[in-house]
Design goal:
This is Enoyl-CoA hydratase. The chain is of the alpha/beta class. The chain is 46% helix and 17% strand.
């Protein structure tokens, strides 16, 4: 194995293997790393492949530029609602099922389905300037990507409802205090902090690490699968509503949405 292997991602992803870690980086900084269904599916494939690759002992997911990821790219081509939901759910399921640890390196804003992406990970390390946001109601939708299970599991029902119904933004420090994430560090220290965690995971006892992840996920993520199913069925309906069309048009037009009753 060479010191650094660069693998095939797609136009929205850069994938590298180095020192026992596969790092997957979203590479659309001009769109704050928002991405579509094809990238969702490719991300799931990469995570599944990492679990079978003897070179890889953990996965790191991060974003290029000033954002981690701001969720779905609403300016992209239309896709059937069922296919869109299946693509989103694929990477959440892949992270939870991966036999190796997955680390979210949250370097900036984390919004929409990216909150589910981050919280499905086993360790979440955030820069102090980052934040977490569920903006779904503002475009006539409900939270998805497993967030109806993952957010309450971290912060409790009341805080989760504040994020989901009111669009409350949660800064990294508050997310740590509320139990949503693992660590917060200064922006300039994020790389070193994640590198240190990766080194510990990569050099640790692999059978014990895998068994630990499997046991804790089995004890705590029992509602994730049913939540993904509920989100899918309800979101497919909401994606076809006038409120959703109005919400997207208002967002893209930078105006206030006017929803029906």
């Amino acid at each position: 194995m060479t010191a650094s292997d660069v693998l095939l991602g797609n136009d929205d992803l850069r994938v590298e293997i180095h020192a026992g870690a596969m790092t997957v980086t979203f590479t659309r900084p001009e769109r704050l790393n928002a991405f579509g269904a094809a990238t969702s599916a490719r991300l799931a494939e990469l995570i599944r492949a990492a679990g079978d690759d003897p070179r890889v002992r953990c996965v790191v997911i991060t974003g290029e530029g000033r954002a981690f990821c701001t969720g779905a790219d609403l300016s992209g081509p239309a896709i059937a609602p069922a296919a869109a939901m299946e693509a989103v759910n694929s990477y959440v399921r892949a992270i939870a099922a991966a036999p190796i640890p997955v680390v979210a390196k949250v370097n900036g804003p984390c919004a929409g389905m990216a909150v589910g992406l981050a919280l499905a990970c086993d360790i979440v390390i955030a820069a102090e300037s980052s934040y977490f946001l569920l903006p779904f109601v503002g475009i006539g939708l409900m939270p998805d990507a497993g967030t109806t299970a993952l957010v309450p599991a971290g912060v409790g029902r009341m805080r989760a409802l504040g994020m989901a119904l009111l669009g409350d933004r949660v800064c990294a420090a508050a997310a740590l205090a509320q139990g949503m994430i693992t660590r917060v560090c200064a922006d300039g220290a994020l790389d070193a902090e994640v590198d240190g965690v990766v080194e510990r995971l990569a050099s640790g006892p692999q059978q014990a690490i895998r068994a630990t992840k499997r046991a804790i996920n089995a004890a705590t993520l029992g509602e994730l699968g049913p939540s993904l199913d509920r989100e899918t069925s309800d979101q497919i309906v909401l994606l076809g509503t006038d409120d959703h069309r109005e919400g997207v048009a208002a967002m893209l037009g930078k105006r206030k949405a006017v929803f029906g009753r």
